[in-house]
Design brief:
Region (Disordered): 30-54
Structural class: mainly alpha
Number of strands: 0
Order of helices and strands: HHHHHHHHHHHHHHHHHHH
Helix content: 55-70%
Protein name: Cell differentiation protein rcd1
Distance between the termini: 56 Å
Organism: Paramecium primaurelia
Shape: elongated
Pfam families: Rcd1 (PF04078)
Biased composition (Low complexity): 30-43
């Protein structure tokens, strides 16, 4: 697969998402100087696959056949799933087959290996994704088109979750094909469903706390894309995007990476502050989103240099240990731990 055909957005670099005053930058750098740590060379963007990974999709797929997998579970359900996979090759039957396979994600445990190792199936998925690109700019995605591609994305989420296919999924760089969907801003239901389901695939990758997945994502544009959605997206997409950033922060490499430079730190902290201000001013009771935000703040406070800066930049509303808008007991405990880490009474 030639790298020139992989569409990756480059216009939402983390280092250019916020404008930092010289005083703020000096404040961060002073805190950074107090903790000596080896510099990391990763960047949010500029991810370039190695030549060994730029093979054709057909050579990346195993030669193991559907028949080999069907022996694992000799029943009518397996036969039905196999038939749906075979129907993907028929353009007239593909949409229905995609829908039916998507419904089997939770009830059929061998679906991910079957999909990955069946000849041509991943190529069909990528073809379905590529067809949608032309409808992104200008925004012309219909509800029917959105529903169809969301079935594909649901199956990709299955591949991202399964222990036997996750590494192959990453090595094939399939998440990169979803980034144009995350780079959209149209607020129609068709586009929101597309963003949420695409975020669901990335969320499936980080859900298992797999270092390989975290390291892969840190070399791509996923963090600035998530921050953009967190700041301007709708309720569900904001929540999933915040969850992804939270899982990256919970990884030691992810935390060190985000706290390495003032640009990265302020890109994250300013978006978190905006979200807290929105929730507080609107009096919206979104405990699930609040849970992810507080956990992000707590994790940032566990980094020495970020914690020192966070004392100054923590939203005023969170400096009160008796905040009534935090209702979940676990989140209240996280909030208290955050204040303790920052020595705020």
């Amino acid at each position: 697969m030639s790298n020139q055909y992989v569409i990756v957005p480059q216009n939402y670099r983390s280092d250019s998402m916020v404008s930092i005053s010289p005083a703020d930058k000096r404040y961060f750098e002073q805190a950074q100087a107090k903790q000596k740590s080896p510099p990391q060379q990763m960047m949010f963007g500029g991810y370039s696959p190695s030549p060994s990974l730029q093979k054709s999709l057909s050579t990346q797929l195993s030669e193991q056949s559907i028949d080999d997998f069907s022996r694992m579970q000799k029943d009518s359900d397996t036969e039905l799933v196999v038939q749906y996979i075979l129907q993907l090759r028929d353009a007239d039957k593909r949409e229905q087959a995609l829908s039916e396979l998507s419904k089997k994600r939770e009830s059929f445990p061998h679906l991910a290996p079957l999909l990955w190792h069946s000849v041509g199936t991943i190529a069909i998925f990528l073809q379905e994704i590529a067809v949608v690109y032309q409808h992104l700019q200008p925004a012309q995605l219909t509800p029917a088109q959105s529903s169809r591609i969301c079935s594909v994305l649901g199956l990709l989420q299955c591949l991202a979750l399964h222990v036997q296919t996750r590494s192959c999924f990453l090595r094939a760089h399939i998440p990169l094909f979803l980034y144009p969907f995350l780079n959209t801003s149209n607020k129609s239901k068709a586009f929101e469903n597309l963003r949420v389901t695409s975020l669901g695939v990335i969320g499936a990758l980080v859900k298992g706390d797999d270092p390989e997945a975290i390291n892969f994502l840190m070399q791509t544009e996923i963090i600035p894309l998530c921050l953009r959605i967190m700041k301007k997206g709708q309720e569900l997409s904001r929540t999933v995007a915040t969850f992804i950033v939270q899982k990256i922060l919970l990884d030691d490499n992810g935390l060190n990476y985000i706290c390495q430079t003032p640009e990265r730190f302020f890109a994250v902290s300013q978006v978190l502050q905006t979200m807290i201000d929105d929730l507080h001013q609107s009096q919206k009771d979104d405990q699930r989103l609040l849970r992810h935000i507080i956990r992000c703040y707590l994790r940032l406070s566990e980094n020495q240099k970020a914690g020192e800066v966070l004392k100054k930049y923590l939203p005023q509303v969170l400096k009160d240990p008796t905040q009534s808008f935090i209702k979940d007991e676990v989140v209240k405990k996280w909030h208290n731990n955050l204040l303790q880490n920052l020595s705020i009474k």
